[in-house]
Design goal:
three-stranded parallel beta sheet; 7 helices; about 150 residues; alpha/beta; Rossmann fold
Length: about 150
């Protein structure tokens, strides 16, 4: 199973660095696991970008419709977030110390572990390092620094 973090998935719905690479990755997979948290994060990220003038209302609405279509078509498998994953995320922060794992990143990693995912996709360097430390096969979609 492949779990996809919001930082990578958003690249499917709006154009940013490495969007083409992620879209090709997405299209080559049959089903990707995400959590309900992912949907909230995508919605928040789109709204923030609209408020900042990076995208307009139409693009925001189109992106959310594409998310809904991917769910309806079965490309994204939505998983709940349970109390046990939240409690486990607390443990993961200590497990990957001294990496500065952020709250929601820890929660995504906890959910992926709960689902017994072997693969993890992200566009976040610190989360990628933590995922690798936890034994995931990590796919990254971030801009390389020159």
């Amino acid at each position: 199973m492949l779990y996809v973090d919001t930082s990578a998935l958003i690249k499917r719905y709006i154009t940013e660095s490495n969007s083409d690479e992620f879209d090709a990755f997405f299209m080559a997979r049959t089903q990707l696991a995400v959590s309900r948290l992912t949907l909230v994060e995508i919605r928040c990220a789109l709204a923030r970008r609209r408020r900042n003038g990076e995208i307009d209302t139409l693009l925001e609405e189109q992106a959310m419709e594409e998310v809904r279509t991917d769910i309806q078509d079965g490309a994204l498998e939505i998983h709940p977030v349970g109390d046990d994953q939240v409690a486990h995320a607390l443990h993961l922060i200590g497990q990957v110390s001294p990496l500065p794992l952020r709250t929601l990143d820890a929660l995504h990693l906890s959910i992926a572990q709960h689902l017994h995912a072997r693969d993890f996709a992200t566009a976040d360097r610190l989360q990628a390092e933590a995922a690798q430390a936890l034994g995931f096969n990590v796919f990254t979609f971030m801009q390389l620094k020159s």
